[in-house]
Amino acid sequence: MYNMRKRLLFVAVLVLLAGFVVGNITPVNAATSYFAGYNYYTSSVTGVLARLPYGNPNVPVSGGFSTEWALAWGANSYIQAGWIKNYGNSAPQYFVEYWNGCGQFCRYTYGTIDSNTHEYKVQQSGSNWCGYIDGYQKAPCVPTSQLGFTTASNEQYFGETTNTSIQLGGTGTSHFRMTRLSFQLSSVWTQVNTNNLSIYVSPGTSYHANAGFTSPDTWEDNWTQ
Amino acid sequence: MQKKTALILISVFGIIFGIGWLLGHAYSSKIIPAHAQSNLPDGNILKQDLAKENWTFEPVDPSNLNASGITQTILTSDKVIGIANSQFPDLQGTKSLIGITANLGKLSNQQLQSSAQAGEKVDPTFLNPRLVWIVTYVGVNSQSVGSPNGPHATSNEFDVVLDATTGEQLMTFVWTR
Predict the structure, then answer these.
(1) Is some CB atom of chain A closer than 8 A to the CB atom of B128?
(2) ipTM exceeds 0.90
(3) Where are the domains of chain B?
(4) In b/e form, how buried is each residue of B108-143, taking b as 16+ CB within 10 angstroms?
């Protein structure tokens, strides 16, 4: 009987320790994100711009986020501006992000976005590239020498989300929208030739694009599951 | 009878396992390694690092505001950490969190001043030195947004910049140390 009690006590301690070890294991939050959007390929570009409507999608998973942005790409580096809503945020925020800074990449968020459509732009300014929200330069700008390119060779207009159960930027009747997709070349802003946009959808995403251009200066694209 | 005893034993061990799990979870959430505590950035570290990203940050000693010519009432570090925690409630619960600290100083951006002088429209928030608290969460991971085919990384520090007198959130930024 005494031995039986000892064994039970031993097993109980083992079980307690097992629980402690399992509880101590840190889970890794690796929320997979899915991109959907368009590339445009023109070299010597000094600015990229898009107007993005308000979006406040649900972000249910820790480490998750939803975002839309315009981006300038060159030399395996980038600078982008847009809105982002991270897990735990009650509302989306403006953001500017660039590679080759803050240890690896810099991301700045600024304030909470109101429900209007806003203009997001990245543009060369002197020897820097800068992010702009509604025409106002945000701090900081990044020197071209640090960023890794002077002019962009690829312009990108994308949405990205870790939650494929939402309609990014809207509902079933008011879909993901971007307007005024533009680039700056030789100091002149030009809207992209929509026939030359190259679609990109992340492998595995449940989104697919049904593109349509409703007018020469307004682009609307519906993302349906 | 044996079946009943087995059920009781399974239940008891289940409860014991649960208690162990809770203890382990609490332990891993609260423990802050001594070496990690020393990695919390002070004002001078922030000054150096922010300068690399074209910011000017002049640390201010909150216990000696007069020496810096500051006469207005400012929020305490505990208060601003509380504000940041309430604005980003998930950060405190992050398992990888190493520690939270707050540094007081004046933050501005020279580039904004140059752009404004050149006639560009600029966000005035940091046009002139602004007294702010920077609340730093060390050990909080953030994934880069980036581009589908571009480089990606995960940062390990999250900073919240708050107005030192009102507590208004002015900006956040991430860092990789």
Answers:
(1) no
(2) no
(3) 1-31, 34-175
(4) bbebbbebeeeebebbebbeeebbbbbbbbbbbbbb
